[in-house]
Every structure is written in C-alpha cells, then in structure tokens.
Amino acid sequence: MRETIKIKLKEIEENYRVKILYACESGSRAWGFPSKDSDYDVRFIYVHHPDDYLVIDPMGVGTKRDVIELPINDMLDINGWELTKALKLFRKGNPPLLEWMNSNIVYYHNYSTLKQMKGLIPEIFSPVSAIYHYLNMAKNNFRVYLQSDEVKIKKYFYVLRPVLASKWIEQYNEFPPLEFKALLERLIPEGDLKKEITTLYKRKIAGDEFDSEPRIQIINDFLDTEIERLQNYAKSVKSKVENPTEKLNIIFKSTLQEVWR
Q1: CA–CA distance from 5 to each of 22, 41, 75, 91, 163 (Å)?
Q2: Bridge partners of 108?
Q3: Per-residue pLDDT band at 210 (split at 50, 70, 90)
Q4: d(CA 255, CA 198)
C-alpha cells in the first residue's frame, strides 16, 4: 500500500501542478489501534507554483480551493491542505494539523518546511485550544457510543484516546503523543482499570472490535469522572501565544524559493 500511496501522491503533483511537502498517515493507524479492515487516511501539505499566488484573489477564495481531496475508495482516503491554509491553522495551534506533523507513519517528506514548522510548535501550542478540542471529541463520543447497556469495543478508544490526550496536556503542558499505548503507559497507574483497558486494547488489535458486549463499568466510570474533572480544569487554564505571523510568512516565502527555484 505504501507504494500505491506514493504513486497517488505523484499523480497529484502532476495533475494539480503542485509540490507535496509532507504526507503522513492519520487516524487509527497513526494512533496505534487500526482495525483489520481499516482504510488508509493519508494527509498531506502542498504548495502551488509562485505564479498561482501572484494574483489578487488569495488561495481559498472563490474557485481557488485550498484543499485537494481524492475520491475515497474502500481502502484509501487521501486529502491535503495548501500551505497557506496549513500555516494559518498552525498559527492557531490546530490539533489535527499538529497530529499530522507528529505522525509516526510518514509517506513523503521533502524540503525544509516541516522542520521549520516543528521548530515553532513550542511557541504556537495552545493548551486551551488543544484540551477543548480533545474534550469536545471525548464528550460527544461518550454520549453517542457508550451510554447503551451494550457497546462495541472499538468505540471505547474514540473516548479513551481524547481523554488521555487531555490528561497529557494537563500534566505535561505539551502536545500529546499520537500513539494510544504511549498515553496509556504514562498516564494510567497499575491496577484494575489499566488491566481492563490493556485487555480491551489487545482484543481490538486482534480484531474483536465489532463485538457488542455489556459496557465495562470501571472504564465508563473513569471516563465519566475524568471528562467532568478535565472540563473544570480547562476553565482554569490560561495561556498566551505570541503572534507568529511574521515567522510563518518567512516559512512560506522560503518554501516557495526552495521548492521552485
């Protein structure tokens, strides 16, 4: 599949007259708990030719789309963000973009843009926006998926992971790792709760995720308590991020020179 992905990325460059700067896996494969039939969620950042920027309408206005999305098939979902869109979201500490940048499954990485952006993460990271992003995800999934008497195994992880990501931000004041196992090992102490989550994790990896079973009360109680506690904590978090726009402008200009010189 890796070779197929690289071929698709090359086709995108040729068909859209762009250069891809970085492409990675997102979603369950990057989080470390893919299903046996999980598709590949490929995300990328790309840049246009300088001529496409030297016009009165900026990217994203009118017909000038700032995303590229390929039709999804059973196994492959590919879409990307144009560089100025990515940099504007990066300026806000956008958690999905930060997840892309920290993915441990990288399909393509060329030029120095991503390295420059990563160097600014400590400056642009906003604990407030990140923790609310993960808490909203956790609350919504908890309400929708885990309130019935019987639940599917896979649904636990779509609540557990954002809750643990929020706890990581609370404890370390930094963007959390993507891999679920790393969050579990560092944040949950030894005991019955960790044993239940570890067993569930092993079963999901083995392919039992679609089974509907009685909900696991110790996990539900943990999630219910932590979501409420973290919501109260989030209200007290204060963070101030200096405006990085000038630095991001430099990254944009230097990328154009590096890629298209």
Answers
A1: 13, 10, 11, 29, 31
A2: 23
A3: low
A4: 43
pLDDT in tens, 179-205: 999 999 999 999 999 999 999 998 888
Length of the chain: 261
pLDDT digits (tens, 9 = 90+) for 129-158: 999 999 999 999 999 999 988 988 889 999
| 176-187 burial code (b ≥16 CB/10 A, e <16) | bbbbbeebbeeb
